[in-house]
């Protein structure tokens, strides 16, 4: 059964020791009209990642989904996802981890100076609405917090491996405070994101529905799209899977 506890953050919390997916539970709550509710779990048995991937979510992580009803058009929704990644990276940095962001919203820790990284956290945003307005938006955030390195998928790292264990309650509180601040000031999201970006300046390959884009990532637009300088000119990519390539 869900246990509720209070955080000093402008969200009410529904805590589960174990749940299928906090995003699924959050979607249920959103469908019932809830807002500013956070579903937090110690363990997920059916964690979901982007692009229909599975997301390993053993006990000891921070698996959290935030239910909001933002007064924005769907076109602005990516800013919420970027805000979640900035908030997560900020909380991780305060915990002593050199957290950066890989476009669009993976929180990573650099390895060396070549754009290589290990993944610390990921964000899965889901929403419902019409073309002109968002009904609800769920920002699902998964942080490999107090997890042993050998419990992690390949290419991943954890707060424990980088800086030692965190007080997860405090971590979630800081994350939510930052998320709340940025959702109230969406103009501040991209500038903050840029400061933390590992992707800008990298040679990248972006897989997107309309085909692959290869070149140097030079900036993000005010709506969070990636600007890539390719051999054929500049291409702006609003969504896709981005890989950092080794410098040639
Ligand atoms: C990614 O693929 O990088 C996104 C991973 C998102 C995982 C989080 S954990 C909390 C929330 N519940 C889920 O089932 N997924 C998200």
Automatic annotation (TrEMBL):
<dbReference type="GO" id="GO:0005737">
    <property type="term" value="C:cytoplasm"/>
</dbReference>
<dbReference type="GO" id="GO:0006355">
    <property type="term" value="P:regulation of DNA-templated transcription"/>
</dbReference>
<keyword id="KW-0067">ATP-binding</keyword>
<dbReference type="GO" id="GO:0004077">
    <property type="term" value="F:biotin--[biotin carboxyl-carrier protein] ligase activity"/>
</dbReference>
<keyword id="KW-0547">Nucleotide-binding</keyword>
<protein>
    <submittedName>
        <fullName>Biotin--acetyl-CoA-carboxylase ligase</fullName>
    </submittedName>
</protein>
<keyword id="KW-0436">Ligase</keyword>
<feature type="domain" description="BPL/LPL catalytic">
    <location>
        <begin position="1"/>
        <end position="187"/>
    </location>
</feature>
<dbReference type="GO" id="GO:0005524">
    <property type="term" value="F:ATP binding"/>
</dbReference>
